[in-house]
Write a structure and sequence with these properties.
152 residues, single chain, 19% strand, alpha+beta, five-stranded antiparallel beta sheet
Length: 152
């Protein structure tokens, strides 16, 4: 029995020799997965495949962008029916290698004869640096009455 095609969206080409009406995109469900693509010539060779409709939509978008059309030549694809392109998760980068272990104070005291044991080495002193204030404090202005004003 043949499977029915489902309308899932469209692409509209504005510029170029193939400009015109929107191109319909159809979903075909099979036992092995899903396929999304147009049925109009010359675009019917662009088919996105995936396990789910969302993965097939993401695959279709990647193949459509690789077709050679500039982004300002078309709009879309515009998806309907709850389809949201699901891009595959990128592989996690490898963990950076750990640097070589630096010798600790305990290994230094054992290696250097006459050095004090690690437990007797005081921690580095914390020094507090006084920062100048951002705005200098000025004395509030005082109203002084001059002698010429008081005699009048």
């Amino acid at each position: 029995m043949a499977t029915l095609l489902e309308y899932v969206g469209s692409v509209h080409i504005y510029l170029g020799p193939y400009r015109g009406n929107p191109i319909a995109l159809y979903l075909k469900r099979t036992e092995t997965g899903c396929q999304i693509g147009p049925r109009a010539y010359p675009w019917n060779d662009v088919v996105g495949a995936g396990e789910t409709p969302n993965k097939a939509a993401a695959d279709f978008e990647e193949k459509w962008k690789g077709k050679g059309l500039a982004a300002d030549m078309y709009s879309g694809p515009s998806w309907e029916g709850g389809i949201k392109p699901e891009k595959p998760t990128p592989p996690k980068p490898a963990a950076p290698p750990k640097p070589a272990a630096a010798p600790t104070a305990g290994t230094l005291s054992a290696a250097v004869p006459g050095a004090p044991p690690a437990s007797s080495i005081p921690p580095p002193a914390q020094t507090a640096v006084a920062k100048p204030s951002a705005s200098p404090t000025a004395a509030p202005p005082t109203d002084s009455i001059t002698s010429s004003e008081s005699s009048s």
